[in-house]
Structures are given as structure tokens and as C-alpha cells.
Amino acid sequence: MTVLVTGGAGYIGSHMVWSLLDNGEDVVVLDRLSTGFRWALAPEARLYVGDVADPNLLDSIFKNHQIEAIIHFAGSVVVPDSVSDPLSYYENNTVKSRALIAAAVAAGVPHFVFSSTAAVYGTPQDSQPVAENAALNPESPYGWSKLMTEIMLRDTAAATPLTYTALRYFNVAGSDPKRRTGQSTAGATHLIKVACEVALGKRSRLSVYGTDYPTTDGTCVRDYIHVSDLTSAHLKALKRMRAGGRSIVANCGYGRGFSVLDVVDCVKRVSGNDFEVSLVDRRPGDAASVIANAEVARREFDWVPEYDDLDLIVQTALAWEDLLSKRNDK
Ligand SMILES: NC(=O)c1ccc[n+]([C@@H]2O[C@H](COP(=O)([O-])OP(=O)(O)OC[C@H]3O[C@@H](n4cnc5c(N)ncnc54)[C@H](O)[C@@H]3O)[C@@H](O)[C@H]2O)c1
Ligand SMILES: O=c1ccn([C@@H]2O[C@H](COP(=O)(O)OP(=O)(O)O[C@H]3O[C@H](CO)[C@@H](O)[C@H](O)[C@H]3O)[C@@H](O)[C@H]2O)c(=O)[nH]1
């Protein structure tokens, strides 16, 4: 039995592949290498280079391997890009997910884990931390593109034997503590990644997008989660479905928020390097504040995070950034 990981050459996917292999799973990866890297992949995982919506490629993967679960990371991930180019986000995240789900159902794949996002909530209107049954009001096409995929999964699971888990990730950061992989995205836009690049002198400055949000210091607040805690949530969610668990949606975050300025201070402190910060206008599509209530993950699959510490997240992100510079220098 094999687990198919789409987007397995990307940031989170490459960590997932290592976690699966560490747990004795057989892994096949499907990735078109648009933002991922062949070298990021564990050598034991077989890579099919191509698109998640390519029917011939999917057909051959399902013929060559007995796929028992799909973990679907492949997608486009930059919130402001989705505002400027919404149709490409609906294409890559929604339309192509539909094709993959259809192929999974046709091939009789029993389990599906989907990379959803905190962006489905927008800025929660009621209370924070936000639970899965809160109102869903995405503030970007990215959030909508993921919510539509959740809805397709919900309705497909009701009509077919497919069981799914949609994990709503909050802000994923950090790198593999064993330093086998990390976030290598070229021209990355994620706050912790960008701040680490600036701290190590790989970029000249950091822009802080918006200082007039209704938060304690006026900058946006996010719930930053270490990538290894996220991959452990996937393993546990998969185990639960294998044991007969029904389809669910679960938040993955720690339940506490840090502002952009908190993150900047942390990166300066942990790296020991001061750097320049520009306070600029808001970036389109950003929610003011979003913090996870992760009770469902704890209750349904006994998720116990191990890296709930912003300093530790930043330390591992910096460690990877340092390795990456040495690699790029070669
Ligand atoms: N990074 C975060 O904080 C975060 C938070 C919430 C949800 N997510 C979701 O997690 C998933 C992974 O994100 P990431 O940060 O690792 O991004 P990433 O860009 O590093 O990884 C995405 C991978 O998917 C591949 N890919 C993209 N479109 C494809 C397609 N049509 N066919 C085949 N391969 C394709 C890319 O080459 C890349 O390897 C995404 O679905 C994203 O929306 C990420
Ligand atoms: O150089 C930067 C980068 C980011 N930010 C701010 O930092 C916050 C976090 O931004 P970013 O790290 O880009 O993450 P999000 O836009 O919150 O989105 C991430 O987190 C979501 C889950 O919350 C995922 O779904 C997305 O794929 C992922 O990109 C936002 O307020 C940004 O405006 C800055 O001020 N300067």
C-alpha cells in the first residue's frame, strides 16, 4: 500500500515525505516542480513529474501503485497573488483539485487528506481562537479556492466511499529539526522566511504590510505552527481514517497569535542581527488576525504538538536558511 503525496517536492510536502518514510510508509510523489525542487525530495520516494490534473499520468500512477491514500499539497499558495490573478488560483487550486478527486474516486482510493487553510475564515467576526464551525468568510480568492475544494470533498464523500480529512493549516514555518529539508521557495513571500533571509543578509529589507489593523500593535496577527507538528497531524489523521474514522475538518495551529512586529523582534533576537524594517501600506487579501482552536485535532486524532515555541520555529528556519546559502554558494 502506497501514499501518494502531491506537491511532495514543495516546502510542506517535502517534510511530509520524510515523516511518512520515517514511519515506514511507501511513498510516491506527483509534482510539476513549479515551486518545488527535485533535490528537496527524499531519495526513497519515487517522483512523477507532472500536473495533478493530468489524467494519463494519474492513470499510470494508479496502475503502477496500489494507492491507499492521497495527501494533496499541490497548489498555489501566495495570498496577494490570488488577489491580482484570481483565475489562476481557481484553476490550480480548485479546478485541478476537482480533477484529482475525480481520478481518486474512479480509482477507488479510500482516503484523502487535503491542505486547507486558515484563510477560509477571513478575519473571524465572533470569537478567537476560531473553531471549525465558525462562519467562513475568506478575504482572498486563495481562501475561496481552498474552501471550494473543501466543499467538493464534503459532497463527494457523502456520495462515494471516499473518506477525507481537510486540515486547515494556520501559518506554517520552520524546518525539519534533522535539517533534511526546509523552505526553499525562490522569491518567497512568507513572513518568517523573508525575515530570516533579511537577518542573514540575503535580502536588503523587510516591509511590514499595514500598521493600522485593529490589533494590539496595528500589524496582522497569525498563529505560526512548526512544519513538523503539521506533518505529525497528517500522520495521525491518516491513522484515524485507516481505523474507520469518518470525514472531518480540523484546524492545525497552536491557539496563540503573534503580530508581524512580534515576529520581526523574535527573528532579530534569535539571529542576533538587527535589520532594517519599512512600515508600508496594507497588502491586499490579508485578514487582520486569525488564531486556531485546535480542539478537534486533539480530540479526534490525539494531536500533541511538540514545537509550540516561536523561538524554536525561528531557530529551525534560520538553520535551514543558513544551509541553503551554503548550498547556493556552491
Ligand atoms: N505554507 C503555509 O503556511 C500554508 C498554510 C496553509 C495551507 N497551505 C497549503 O499547503 C500546501 C503546500 O504549501 P507549501 O507552502 O508547501 O507550498 P509550495 O509552493 O512549497 O509547494 C507546493 C508544491 O506543489 C507543486 N505544484 C503546484 N501546483 C501543482 C500542480 N498543478 N501539479 C503538480 N504539482 C504542483 C509545486 O511544484 C510545489 O512543489 C498548499 O496547498 C498550500 O495552499 C500552506
Ligand atoms: O514580507 C512580509 C511578508 C508578510 N508580511 C505580513 O505577515 C503576515 C503573514 O503573511 P504570510 O507569511 O505571507 O502568510 P499569510 O498571508 O497569512 O498566508 C500563509 O498562511 C496561510 C494560512 O494562514 C496560508 O494558507 C497561505 O498559503 C500562506 O501563504 C501578513 O499580515 C503579511 O502582510 C509582512 O508584513 N511582510
From TrEMBL:
SUPFAM superfamilies registered for this protein in UniProt: NAD(P)-binding Rossmann-fold domains
S-adenosyl-L-methionine recorded as keyword: no
Pathway(s) served: Carbohydrate metabolism; galactose metabolism
Domain NAD-dependent epimerase/dehydratase: 3-253
Catalysed reactions, as listed in the record: UDP-alpha-D-glucose = UDP-alpha-D-galactose
GO terms, molecular function: UDP-glucose 4-epimerase activity
Gene3D superfamilies named in the record: NAD(P)-binding Rossmann-like Domain, UDP-galactose 4-epimerase, domain 1
E.C. designation(s): 5.1.3.2
Alphabetized InterPro entries for the sequence: Epimerase_deHydtase, NAD(P)-bd_dom_sf, UDP_G4E
Major enzyme class: isomerase
Cofactor: NAD(+)
Keywords for this protein: Carbohydrate metabolism, Isomerase, NAD, Plasmid
Protein family membership: Belongs to the NAD(P)-dependent epimerase/dehydratase family.
Subunit structure: Homodimer.
UniProt name for this protein: UDP-glucose 4-epimerase
High-level lineage: Bacteria, Pseudomonadati, Pseudomonadota, Alphaproteobacteria, Hyphomicrobiales
